[in-house]
What does this fold into?
Amino acid sequence: MKRIFWLIIGIAVGVYAVTRLKKRAQVLAPESLQESAAKVAAAIRHFGDEVREGMAERETELRDALGIDTTTDTREDYR
It folds into this structure.
């Protein structure tokens, strides 16, 4: 009886470990890594766009406050 109990416990632990390892392998698969990297890159790009937009708004506010003419400014976008 004692051996059967430990056999069942061993099988249960083995099944649990194998399922956890399969899930971990899927997460670390190259496709998942590429998707994660793409999400991070998109988030960084979005953050950069928001910063540039805020810079442009603040520059406009400062130019208006200082009375600087913006029509003579020939600079392009910050990118």
Q: What stands out?
A: The chain is about 80% helix and 0% strand.
